[in-house]
Amino acid sequence: MSQIKGPAIFLLQFVSDEPPFNNLENITKWAKSLGFLGVQIPAWDKRLIDLDAAAKSKDYCNELKGRCNGLEITELTTHLIGQLVAVHSAYDVLCDNFAIPSVRGNPEKRAEWAGNQMKKTIKASRNLGLSVIPTFSGTLLWPYLYPFPQRPNGLVEMGFKELAKKWQPILDTADEYGVDLAYEIHPTQDLHDGVTFERFLAASGNHKRVKILYDPSHFVLQCLDYIGYITCYKDYIKAFHVKDAEFNPSPKSGVYGGYQDWKDRPGRFRSVGDGQVDFKQVFTKMTEIGFNSWAVLEWECCIKDGTQGAAEGAQFIKSMLIDTPKRAFDDFAGGAASTETNKKILHLE
Length: 349
Hints:
TIM Barrel, two-stranded antiparallel ribbon, single chain, alpha/beta, eight-stranded parallel beta sheet
């Protein structure tokens, strides 16, 4: 049996008002027909979950699980909610659509609402028997990513201190309920690589609920060592998105993309198996570090349709899962082990 569970699918890119994507029963029936065993649910989408009810009632959560056509709920995600915990004013208008109408245009109330939604998701996850919530960190420092105009001393440190302060009560609630927050390491978020994750971890006082959602596609677009990252942060990786990407720089454009649309950017997401991520190495390394949670397909591609990408993705993930060995491959050549034998081999007698 594979140590990593799967295949599962993140429903965010597929849910809509059109059947079979319009409610939990229909979309899980569709996912099951493709071979998926689990679904990752966006906690803010009322077509799939009543978050208030899930936070209050285990009975509702049991009913919710029973509506999934036999598929497991792998995690509740809070990406758009987490984004609103910390928003630089440059993104206020763009981020307002992530919130309910009553708090739009009021950054303070919007952040308070987001914090409460995060806490509800923590309670709902506990009621569902889940222990990890994938999320975004939010953005205070991203506009100052490039060091020109020169950043004043202390700006970055202050930014991470403030980010940790905003997350502290949410992290403490997560600890109370035994739930980890797995921050997706993602461009436009203040946590977008290893260095920024470590800065946030330190600013949080090494809070034990600060963890990582690993998605290699974002590392391809940043030209990071996405295989080495797994080993480096093996103790923190608690969630896994299987998403592909490619980076093909040209004389006209590179990592920053020239403000172009996705189809024209040198770095772009691709349907799984169509990009440059070496998933054989990714799954090998994830197995080596002992990751034993779900491999979740996140489909994003500007070329291939999502329904085709989902159908191919289920089989792709299944083909990558590794059945860990029950015995060493060279056991046939071994002899009986004993202290006396080892002394003879080493000529100690």
